[in-house]
């Protein structure tokens, strides 16, 4: 049985289709990612799946329970981490867990064990008796993740679980999510607008834009769809015939003094590209990312405003301006 099935799941606000006839199937034990920019409809989807928002049309089954007709069945099957922080600052980590266990009616005899186990999984045992206001951003997120696990849900819904964390904090959270999914065999649906997160963490990723899934596959297959990595070279000249004779070379274009060679698996095939160039002055490599996939299918960047001076972002801008044959 699939852990989640959505059937034409739709939410409209007046003219705006926040979620537009979504048909999705998430397998049991899978880590599934919804990747998309601001306003794509990720939170709206999660809110309907966890029953706090009623669909305008369509429905979904979560762990076999209908989100409209069997809300309590859905709620007891899921754990959720909301996009907005939701742990109580004035309580300790352990008190937050105790309150949640009470709300979810976890049997009293089991509470101590499950609290201790959750604290172990998210590595907060040593800080359990400190007030949450003394935690770092990453520790708060870990506590919320642990809280979502307390009543041993079959499905964990995580809405932007690493929003605002630094790269190290993000990697920590990824480690816990992977551990939870594998150790407890829990299905995880995670929304994110971080392409690295979707790429590193998820078994499959649905790229979402304007309420629709534009493409869905494993991260590796998604990247394969773009056609290859890009080698950007400024050289005196190229031997185009020789380059094109290599099966790894997908296309060659020239723009403003730079050659753009699209290559399958550049880390292995760079030597044969370089051999076809004369007198190389500068060379830059751009390994294909899920942002490129997003761009291919929507014509836009995942993040509209690149961070200033960010090398990869500038590289992608160049790549975006250059027509991909
Ligand atoms: N209560 C509401 N009333 C009107 N429009 C809404 C409401 N909630 C969401 N929307 C709109 O629905 C669309 C999808 O919003 P949603 O919060 O699902 O996006 P998101 O993908 O989670 O974005 P983000 O990455 O910013 O969290 C947006 O255009 C948003 O403005
Ligand atoms: Mg959101």
Quick synopsis:
By secondary structure, this protein is of the alpha/beta class. The protein has helices at 42-49, 71-77, 93-103, 108-121, 137-149, 167-184, 195-201, 219-226, 240-244, 266-275, 290-298, 311-321; strands at 4-13, 16-26, 31-35, 57-62, 65-66, 78-81, 155-159, 187-192, 204-209, 212-217, 229-238, 249-255, 258-263, 277-286.
What would you say this structure looks like, in words?
It is a single chain. This protein is α/β, with parallel strands linked by helices and 325 residues long. The chain folds into two domains: 4-217, P-loop containing nucleotide triphosphate hydrolases (Rossmann fold, 3-Layer(aba) Sandwich), CATH 3.40.50; 223-321, Alpha-Beta Plaits (2-Layer Sandwich), CATH 3.30.70. The chain is 37% helix and 29% strand. It contains twelve helices and 14 strands. The chain has a six-stranded mixed beta sheet, with helices on both faces. A four-stranded antiparallel beta sheet has the order 2-1-4-5, with helices on one face. A hairpin with a 2-residue loop joins strand 4 (57-62) and strand 5 (65-66). Helix 3 crosses helix 4 (108-121), helix 5 (137-149) packs parallel to helix 6 and helix 8 (219-226) crosses helix 11. The longest helix has 18 residues, at 167-184. The chain is elongated. The model is unreliable at 304-314 (pLDDT under 50). Adenosine-5'-triphosphate binds next to strand 2 and helix 1.
């Amino acid at each position: 049985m699939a852990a989640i099935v959505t059937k034409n799941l739709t939410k409209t606000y007046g003219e705006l289709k926040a979620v537009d006839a979504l048909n999705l199937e998430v397998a049991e034990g899978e880590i599934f990612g919804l990747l998309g920019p601001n306003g794509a409809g990720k939170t709206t989807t999660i809110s309907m799946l966890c029953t706090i928002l009623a669909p305008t049309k369509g429905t979904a089954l979560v762990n076999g329970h209908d989100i409209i007709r069997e809300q309590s069945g859905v709620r007891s099957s899921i754990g959720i981490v909301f996009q907005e922080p939701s742990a109580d600052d004035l309580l300790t980590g352990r008190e937050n867990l105790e309150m949640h266990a009470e709300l979810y009616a976890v049997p009293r005899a089991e509470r101590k064990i499950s609290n201790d186990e959750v604290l172990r999984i998210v590595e907060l045992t040593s800080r359990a008796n400190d007030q949450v206001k003394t935690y770092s951003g990453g520790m708060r997120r870990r506590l919320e993740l642990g809280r979502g696990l307390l009543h041993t849900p079959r499905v964990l819904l995580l809405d932007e679980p690493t929003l605002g964390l630094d790269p190290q904090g993000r990697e920590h959270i990824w480690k816990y999510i992977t551990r939870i999914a594998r150790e407890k065999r829990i299905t995880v649906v995670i929304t994110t607008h971080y392409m690295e997160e979707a790429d590193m963490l998820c078994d499959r990723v649905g790229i979402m834009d304007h309420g629709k899934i534009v493409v869905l596959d494993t991260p590796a297959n998604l990247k394969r769809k773009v056609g290859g990595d890009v080698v950007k070279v400024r050289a005196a000249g190229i031997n185009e015939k020789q380059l094109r004779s290599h099966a790894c070379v997908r296309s060659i274009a020239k723009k403003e003094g730079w050659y753009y060679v699209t290559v399958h698996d550049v880390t292995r095939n760079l030597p044969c590209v370089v051999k076809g160039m004369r007198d190389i002055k500068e060379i830059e490599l751009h390994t294909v990312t899920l942002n490129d996939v997003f761009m291919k299918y929507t014509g836009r960047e995942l993040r509209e405003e690149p961070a200033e001076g960010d090398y990869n972002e500038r590289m992608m801008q160049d790549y975006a301006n250059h027509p991909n044959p």
